[in-house]
Every structure is written in structure tokens, then in C-alpha cells.
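From the pipeline queue, job 12 of 40. The input is one protein chain; the requested action is below.

Action: predict structure.
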Amino acid sequence: YGGSEIDDASGTLRATMVDSGRLRPKLITLIGEMKQNDHLYIASRFISDRAIIRALKDAANHNVIVQIILDPNDSVSGKKLYGMPNRPVAKELTEGTSGGITVRWCDPRLLPCEARMILGKTASSTYMLVGSADLTRRDTAGFNLESVILVEGVRDFTASKDAEVYFNRLWANDGGDY
């Protein structure tokens, strides 16, 4: 769970491996530090961790702009999921806040939404989490062997700019149906 310093053209970055047992508290802390007009981009296959859902709702109610791309969870590995857990969670997030959370859906006709990325942009810093963990209790509370890499910088860095372009491409269906 240590970290290392990396020099990027945009300045010094801190990169840290975060295992599933430490992911929930770290993510809740990062979301909780966001303020009015900060921006949070999330792409995830599953979201159901109640603590993270509460943190997202709190952030949105403090005027953090939250955009989420989710898989509609129609099926996984041939099993019917009937939209669980994402459809009811998306409804809760969008209807249970002051309008700061917007959700869009991946196109299930292609492939499941495999992106697992969180990009947070504040007035003074940028952070990005990428890896194999979904936003479920199993993956954020140490029940699965999942992990993410957390990269933090005092301002936008090359990978965060690339991630934002990628996210916005998916969000706008720029160049295809995503």
C-alpha cells in the first residue's frame, strides 16, 4: 500500500497500489474531499457498495458534478441479471440527489462494460483509479483479490487527460455506439 513518486511532464505524481481491503476507505476519503464544481467521472461494470453510494450522493448534494457510465447488467456469463444491481442503484443516485449525478448506459449489444475507472478533478488536484475492482462490497472491502492503481497529482497529468478524453468519447458516443 506504499507509494512511489513519478515524474511526468505535468509534475510529480504519486502512484499507489490499493488492494481491495483498502479501496473503500480510500475512495470514500477521496470523494468526501471533493467540493462544489469538482468533477468525478466513473466507469464501472457494477456498483452496489452502500458506503460508496452514500459518498456519491453526499458529494452530489454538495454540488460535485458526477458522471457515471454503467453496464445495464442484463446478463453476465450467460446468466440473466435483470438489471441488478446497477439499474436500481442508478435510479437511487439520480433521483436521490440534487441533480448532480448523471448516469449513462453502455450498449449491451456489443460487450459488457469492462471499464473500471474513476477520475476525480478538484481545483487543486487530480486523481485516477484504474484496475480490476468493481464498486461492489466484495471488491472494495477485501472479499475478492482485486486491486487498483491510484495516481495522484497536483494538476492534470498525461494519463488523466487521456482518461478524460476516453471517458468523454464513451459518454458522447464519439466515433461509435458505446
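Job complete. The mean pLDDT is 88.
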